[in-house]
Amino acid sequence: MRLVLASCCAPCSSGAIKQLADGEIAGVDDFIVLFYNPNIFPNDEYTKRMNEQIRYCNTLGVKYAVGDWDHDAWRNAVRGLESEPERGARCDACFAYRFAYARDFAIKNGYNAVASVFGVSKHKDQSQVDAAARRALGEIEYIPIRWDESLRQSINRASNFYRQNYCGCEFSFRKTPQMALVGINSCEMGSGEL
Ligand code: SF4
User: Fold this and answer.
1) 9, 169, 187: which to mutate for ligand 1, most atoms within 8 A of CB?
2) Domain annotation covers residue 194
3) How many domains does the chain have?
4) Which of 9, 98, 119, 176 is 20 to 30 A from 125 in CA distance terms?
5) Which DSSP category does 180 fall into?
6) Which of 86, 99, 128, 194 to mutate to test the pocket of ligand 1 (most atoms within 8 A of CB)?
7) 153 vs 194, which has greater pLDDT?
8) How many angstroms separate the CA atoms of 5 and 7, rounded?
9) Ligand 1, closest atom to CA 94?
């Protein structure tokens, strides 16, 4: 199997990438980390998360690819869903949008399967992520791997990763000055580790 790992950030993907790099996932012959997250806003935040992802991949010597930050196109994909809470319909559309890109990336580059870390955060609903992946991936196989959470937490405790305190889009801001600037309401998010 040649696998694309769709990743949102270094803290969520640390354990998964380590497991893949160590050959712990049966059937995976080759893999690449795909960082395609046009949902992340603003661009400075996107750049921080992207740089941390690249730094971690380089530390482990694994391949990675970075997609475009087409935030305006992403906004079109979630139009009308801006007021949805996290884990609601906006997130369905957001996951599907990013999985569709992973599907096209896989087809174009000779990969035949996709997995993700989109559901590992305690703020996420893994079953929602799985459903969006199955809808969006089409001919590309979805591998719903349940990653080793204790490994992920242990790597993160030992790391100096940049850690964000909101999911990614402007509609998921917690109560920060950014929120006031954009003039939107926060969806409900807890605090603590991702
Ligand atoms: S809260 Fe997160 S998953 Fe949901 S739409 Fe925003 S960035 Fe996407």
Assistant:
1) 169
2) no
3) 1
4) 176
5) H
6) 86
7) 153
8) 6
9) 8
Closest residue (by CA) to atom 3 of ligand 1?
91
> Has residue 66 been placed in a domain?
yes
Inside any domain, residue 174: no
Helix/strand/coil (H/E/C) assignment for every residue in 79-140: CCCCCCCCCCHHHHHHHHHHHHHHHHHHHHHCCCEEEECCCCCCCCCHHHHHHHHHHHHCCC
Going by alpha carbons, the residue nearest to atom 5 of ligand 1 is 91
Evaluated on CA atoms 8, 11, 130, 86, the torsion sign reads: negative
Q: Tell me if residue 193 falls in helix, strand or coil.
A: coil
Residue 50 Cα to chain centre, angstroms: 11
Closest residue to atom 4 of ligand 1, CA basis: 91
| pLDDT at 131 (0 to 100) | 98
In whole angstroms, give the CA distance from residue 58 to residue 186.
34
Is residue 138 in some structural domain?
A: yes
Contact 86, 187 (CB under 8 A): yes
Q: Is the pLDDT of residue 142 over 50?
A: yes
Domain boundaries, position 129: 2-161
Tell me, what's the pLDDT at 174? 67
Mean pLDDT over 39-50 rounds to 98
Structure tokens at 162: 């940049």
Q: Residue 47's domain is classified under what CATH number?
A: 3.40.50.620
How many angstroms separate the CA atoms of 125 and 90, rounded?
Answer: 13
